Amino acid sequence: MIAAVETAGYSRQLRFKIELLLPEMAATAQALWLHPRLAELYPRFLEAMHGIVRASVPLMEAARDRCRTLAPEDPLAAAIIGYFEHHIPEERGHDDWILGDLRLLGRDPERMLRQPPSATVAELVGSQYYWINHYHPVALLGYIAVVEGYPPSLEGVANAAKRTGYPNEAFRTLAKHARLDVGHRYDLDRLLDRLPLAPEHQTVLGISALRTADMVCRVIEELMAG
Description:
Layout: H1 9-19, H2 22-33, H3 38-53, H4 56-70, H5 75-91, H6 94-104, H7 109-114, H8 119-134, H9 139-147, H10 154-164, H11 172-194, H12 199-225
Helix pairs in contact: 1-11, 1-12, 2-12, 3-6, 3-12, 4-5, 4-8, 8-12, 9-12
């Protein structure tokens, strides 16, 4: 269910690094979507994804605020404020989409919200707060490059719905991201290609992206093993 798009410049360098883990990402995704217990696993997948998606806007707000602090003496921070200001409204409410999907599956979102997210989800998101506040907020762009850069295909979403027997409406979040994230990836890659990135910034982008890809795989592997 993972698609790839060609890019150039700094974005292409970052995509090349991510593609080192693309086989693992694709294999993990395939293992989930072809799992014989997919109907059982899909609600748990949504719950795990909610733990990640609910942090999207707060992470970008933290990065935006840190950029504003750094901007007077940091051209890179100044250059990415606008991206976060534009993208935050685009991502707002996506966690509510997931709650709606869970309701259609007969799950109680309020009960889920009372449960602590997995330590792996906390580690995945928490590492970004560290890089934002203790290194540079540009690191978050590596995270976004992964979580928004490789959406499921609409065909894959439809096949998953058929395999579970659940209504198509319970796959609304995946279907919407299959459409929206193509444009979001393009916007991010265009931004990366015009940023004043020093070698150390390119390094942290790669570290953040590769760590994110690895942790997302771990989240899925854990829910399949549970």
